[in-house]
Amino acid sequence: MVTTVLFLLLLNASACKGFGFKGCSQNFHETDVMWCFNQNIANLSEVVSMIPENTTTINLSKNKISVIPPGSFSQMLGLKCLDLSQNKLVSLKGGEFRGLGGLELLNLTCNNISHIHSNAFDGLTRVQTLLLIHNLLATISPDIFNSLPAIQEVDLSLNMLKVFSCGDSGGSSTLRRLDLFANNIQKLNVSCFPALEHIRLSNNSKLELQADVFASNPRLKSLLCQGVKGEVLVGLSAVTKKNLSWVAFSLFVEKSPLTICGLLKGMDRLKKVEVDLKGSRLPQTNSSLLDCATPPVVVIADANLGNVAQLSLGRGNTSKLNLINCGLKQISRTTFDGYRGLKMLQLNQNKLDIQRDTFEGLTHLTFLSFDKSKVADIDANWFVPLKKLTILSLTKNAITELKPKVFSALTQLEQLYLQFNLLKYITKKPFSKLRRLTKLNLSLNIIDFIEEDTFQDLTNLIYLNLSGNRIKRLTPSILSGLINLRTFILYNNRLHFKSYETPFINLTSLEYLQMTYQGPGGQGIGTIGPHFFQDQRRLISFEIGHSILLDFHPEAFIPLVNLKYLYIAGVVMKTTNMSAVLSPLKGLKKLTIYRADLDALPANLLPPDNTLKILKVQSNHLHTVEKAMLDTLPRLHFLDITDNPLTCTCDNAWFKTWAIHNTHTQVSYLYNLKCDNDRRSPYLWQFDDKACSFEQVSFTIFIACSVADMLFVCVCLAWHKQGPTLRFLLLILRAKLRGRRGAAGAKFQYDAFISYSCNDEAWVMRQLVPNLERPAAGAPRLRLCLHHRDFRPGAAVMENIEAAIYGSRHTICVVTRHFLRSEWCSLEFQMASLRLLCDGSDVLLLVFLEEIPEHCLSPYTRLRKIVHKKTYLLWPENPQEQDAFWVRLIDALKDSEEEEEGEGGGEQELARLIG
């Protein structure tokens, strides 16, 4: 016991310390945050019991929790955020959240909750946000709000509520936001929420609202009613309308007598309106949607406007206009004549044919978006009036080419989004004069060639995304001009480099470089040579991998003196000298080597004075974790070795103890680490390592085994050189010892045990037994042991055979072809031979009932050797010779008995047979 305690203290005093949690991982940067996401957790209690009491945030989403035992979180007095979404909860009966007086956010989204008891949230005095989205609630008691005195937001979207009504005693004076989207609500009463500011009632098609429904909600500013009959807005009281600043509704213009302006009448303080036109068409004679004053933000969606010469969208101070999926086709200068002060314009999800003068009057525009609008060609004339434009988005279109200097008029442009198009080449300097551009996204095109000096004018570019293309080559000439680039994303291309190349030598400000997934269709990244990162002294994060071919020169990382994060994945690194490659990275904080086919990590993985805090080596072939390796990482706080075939042997016994009992390095999902070789202990933490606790015992056993091996080798050599002599001396010695023990004479129950095949039983019973047990007058009478007659009932067959052989003076084997094929006969013969070898008793007598050729005996080595060295009896076919056979057999039995009484005959015969 004392030794065990000392051993554990020694582990605690080591350079490395560790700890882990069941089904959870502690956030490294924020140690009060626990991630227990998607871990198949069903038993909540055993997981929560291991979480530190000072935790403020727990994410338990996407598990299999069906019940929350009362008081499960009672020890976590400081918990502020609890996420139980995407589980299997069916009801809240009360007491589940006892003790969580400091909780501020409770997320119960996407469960199967159909009932909530009125006191289910008792004690949650500080909860401000309650999310119950996508459950099975058909009713909800307003009394639950009595337990939530600080509640500000409740989301009950996507449930089955038909009525939401205040009771006599329930309600909340603090609730500001209420979301009832996509229920079946027909009747609404929110009079018990006087502080309500925002309510969403969309997609409750049968909803009826009384004129004074919001009379008790003087602070109501936002009313969202898409998918609800427009008449519900018309009937609202004037006071309610006057207070609204954001309203959203649906209107089918072609079939409704109502108009947008009619619905907005009386809403004098409106700042934002969203209208879902549900596929409405404008009459050919009237292109007016709004003929009244419009708020600053107008969002119109799902219409079928077609070719609009001049779209009348009202008057006023509108600065942001979104026309989303409105069926717009041809737009021109007159389309937006009424919007000279427009600053933000979104024309997403249309089929636009843009005229060259379309934006001529929109000189104040700063944001323009044509996403998903099937734009194929870009005309540089579009942008000539847009002197103040800072953000341009052309995402998910059909653009195949960028013309020379196509964006040159946009001298103030800061962000340009061209992802998800059909660009194949970037040539002729399309980004000329964009000297203020800071962000450029060209991802998810089919680019396979970029001309030199393409980015020459982008001297202020900070972010460049070229991922998801087919780029094969990048050279310093292609990337010239990007002197301030900090983030460069290149994943999913076909890049290939030679060992002597320096592609990023001009990117002297680069901090983040991502170049994973280079293939298919390419040759792989190739070799990261000694000059690959030349002048990259500012690089902080580098990600590479998932490539057909990737190799690192031992000096590749020498220039990366400030590298903090390194991610290598999806490559074969068995032959890579990891120590040499990583030796320059003294300042590395996080190292991830994922699916790199590693069998082991070197003891000197990083230089001695390293500052590594996070090590992730998931999904490799690691069987053991070396203590020497972890001892060289004194600042390690987080270790992830999940999805490795760890062996539950003494080699990992120290690691199990280290991971469980120490408090400096967290072992990610420690209690989910499985054994690869031990079915009795499916998990590493269950492995019984008692026999591995003492290193001295292991060393002693090693020495003892080594000595035993050496002695065994010496004995084998001596036996090989002087085998016959040693056999003879051994047999003589054993015979003398047996002679002393058996001086009084051994006593046997039977004279002979008969070993025969059942196919030969007729000869045994008709010939052998009568002639030996009932001989003619004057001949000796012998006692025979037969299977069917003398074996003890109920005993094991093996026990009966052994007792018969050792209880009989002789063993007579009746040899035939049936005998040779019988497994039981073979076993009896081997046991009789074993007696011959063990105590020197020459007990075997062979009786052949038929001639058996030499080649038939070849598989039976011992039997063939005895036949060659001893005389055997052959049953004669001639009846006249059979009497002589019985005389010879009886004499053999008598002679053998006399030889047993001698002092050396058995030993000599045994030596002869063995030799």
Automatic annotation (TrEMBL):
Annotated signal peptide: 1-18
An individual GO BP term: innate immune response
SMART domains: LRR_SD22 (SM00365), LRR_TYP (SM00369), TIR (SM00255)
Glycoprotein found in the keyword field: yes
Location of the TIR domain: 748-893
Keywords: Glycoprotein, Immunity, Inflammatory response, Innate immunity, Leucine-rich repeat, Membrane, Receptor, Repeat, Signal, Transmembrane, Transmembrane helix
SUPFAM superfamilies per record: L domain-like, Toll/Interleukin receptor TIR domain
GO CC, alphabetical: plasma membrane
Membrane topology: Single-pass type I membrane protein
Biased composition (Acidic residues): 896-906
GO molecular function, one term: signaling receptor activity
InterPro entries to which the protein is assigned, alphabetical: Leu-rich_rpt, Leu-rich_rpt_typical-subtyp, LRR_dom_sf, TIR_dom, Toll_tir_struct_dom_sf
Gene3D superfamilies (UniProt xref): Ribonuclease Inhibitor (3.80.10.10), Toll/interleukin-1 receptor homology (TIR) domain (3.40.50.10140)
Organism superkingdom: Eukaryota
Cellular location(s): Membrane
Ranges where the record places region Disordered: 896-915
Family as reported in the entry's similarity comment: Belongs to the Toll-like receptor family.
Protein name: TIR domain-containing protein
